[in-house]
Design brief:
Layout: H1 3-23, H2 26-30, H3 35-46, H4 51-71, H5 216-223, H6 239-242
Helix pairs in contact: 1-4, 3-4
């Protein structure tokens, strides 16, 4: 089974668990330790429900069986932008060409790569990643001042403490990224997708969010950032106004 199929199954497995949870009580589910046992119990329960629910039960059992295969196989390396407690290996400072932008050939949706993409503590000021897919990259404590990220894809990057001051993310996709404590002073997020991205403790002074897409919940959190103020020195946009904050 391909790595891509494993990633798809991981999503389906979560859906399957939700379906089973709706059909079995917590007490019943506690005693079911294998996909076969769950399949048997769900099949029995399905006999007394509607055709649509029966279909869901069969799907749930099948997906849970596939999930057991998934857990037995390795997955590509990826950074998890949703957590700050993920444990990463030490930085390989002897790796030749480590601090280089390289586009992923796998695709940005799952931020997967063949190996860990480690740019931690790299100094890459003024370089270009325009149009690159650097999803899943570890950028923690790196320096990316005035980097060209236009049209770049940065799904699930892990960048606490990184310095992006003066960088340009125009028309990029910055999805589910972790930027706690990062510096975004005078950055351009013009027409950038910023879904489910954390700016907790980040410096957003003089940042331009004109046309950026943020979910309602994300926007509310962003507006509470005390550094969200000033005007972008390049575009002249008012920071709070550009972010839609009153």
């Amino acid at each position: 089974m391909s790595r891509r199929n494993h990633r798809v199954l991981s999503v389906h497995a979560r859906v399957a668990f939700a379906v089973v949870g709706a059909m079995l009580t917590a007490q019943e589910a506690a005693g079911l330790r294998s996909p076969a046992a769950i399949r048997s119990r769900v099949a029995g329960r399905a006999a007394s429900v509607s055709m649509a629910d029966r279909r869901d039960a069969r799907l749930a059992a099948a997906m849970l069986l596939c999930a057991s295969l998934q857990m037995a196989s390795p997955l590509p390396s990826m950074a998890d932008g949703d957590t700050e407690t993920f444990k990463f290996p030490p930085i390989d400072r002897n790796k030749k060409g480590r601090c280089t932008f390289a586009s992923s050939s796998i695709g940005q949706a799952n931020a997967a790569r063949d190996s860990l993409y480690d740019l931690r503590e790299c100094v890459m000021d003024g370089k270009s990643a325009g149009g690159f897919d650097i999803s899943g990259a570890l950028l923690a404590d790196g320096s990316f001042k005035k980097v060209d990220f236009k049209d770049a894809q940065l799904s699930k990057v892990y960048a606490p403490g990184a310095d992006f001051s003066g960088a340009d993310f125009t028309d990029g996709v910055v999805d589910r990224a972790f930027f706690k404590g990062a510096n975004f002073e005078a950055v351009k997020f013009v027409n950038t997708v910023l879904t489910s991205t954390s700016f907790e403790g980040a410096n957003l002074k003089d940042t331009d969010f004109t046309g950026a897409y943020l979910g309602q919940f994300d926007a509310k959190k962003l507006c509470k950032n005390p550094t969200l103020d000033g005007k972008n020195p390049v575009t002249g946009a008012d920071t709070r106004e550009s972010a839609g904050c009153a």
